[in-house]
Specification:
alpha/beta, Lysozyme-like, globular
């Protein structure tokens, strides 16, 4: 999990946490986030004026976290921010697929409780969660329009956003079109704020040697990448990984690119 916000986890417990159970007693949910980085925290970046992006995309409807957190909310440190988002990492939550979409807020709340209570993390790791009906939920606190430093891809939480598909998408599992369309729209908007092409690449610096790359290594990754591009995991599942090229193309089209 996050590299900019040190959690309340004892040092001995800060280990790799890829695809571990979120709450064994509640729906058998499993999160596909990865362990706590020990890099120093960053100060929030002041708001700066930027030229209007050349290829903006419409902001999708995003359900606020107040719709799912209820009385489960715990006290936590203030959000941390980067200067902008230059890449998006896609995850799946390793939770059951057969849910009614009306139950998505409850399932997200279980994920949050599993990470905050069972794992002693400071907040939900993902910046956004998308359900199988294509509803986009705000995840981590800090403001959906801002470059909130997440806790979703160990080594690569700075200048990125984490989008989690609610479900399990291993090989052969159908990925709902409503879900992939929503992920594309969210990616188009989020990368469009920085004028970035979802089909392009991003230069990122690893902040933790538990990622695929030694700490301090500058790497070039897809601007829309699977969790497994930065961390040793099967997340977001073979079926969803296979859909990433299509999602990139759709996101680019939504930005008005050809």
């Amino acid at each position: 999990m996050g590299d900019s916000r040190l959690h309340r986890v004892p040092r001995a417990a800060r280990v790799v946490l890829a695809c571990l159970p979120a709450i064994a007693a509640a729906l058998g949910l499993v999160t596909c986030t990865a362990g706590v980085d020990r890099t120093p925290t960053r100060r929030a970046h002041p708001a700066t004026s930027r030229p209007a992006p050349a290829h903006p995309a419409a902001k999708p409807r995003i359900v606020p976290r107040t719709a799912w957190i209820g009385d489960a909310e715990r006290g936590q440190p203030p959000p941390r921010y980067d200067d902008r988002v230059v890449a998006v990492f896609i995850h799946h939550t390793d939770s059951p697929n057969g849910y009614d979409c009306a139950d998505a807020p409850r399932i997200i709340r279980y994920l949050y409780v599993g990470q905050v209570d069972s794992r002693d993390w400071d907040d939900l790791g993902y910046n956004f969660v998308v359900d199988r009906c294509g509803t986009v939920y705000e995840g981590r606190a800090g403001g959906v329009d801002r470059p909130v430093t997440g806790a979703h891809t160990q080594g690569f939480n700075h200048r990125t956003a984490g989008i989690a598909a609610l479900g399990t998408f291993t090989a052969g599992v159908p990925v709902p079109k409503a879900m992939t369309d929503a992920i594309a729209a969210l990616t188009a908007w989020k990368l469009g704020l920085s004028g970035l092409d979802p089909r392009g690449t991003a230069r990122l610096v690893s902040s933790n040697s538990l990622s695929r790359f030694a700490s301090g290594t500058t790497v070039t990754l897809p601007a829309l990448a699977g969790h497994n591009a930065g961390y040793m995991t099967s997340c977001p599942g073979a079926a969803l990984t296979a859909r990433l090229p299509e999602i990139r193309q759709t996101a680019a089209r939504l930005q008005g690119r050809h």
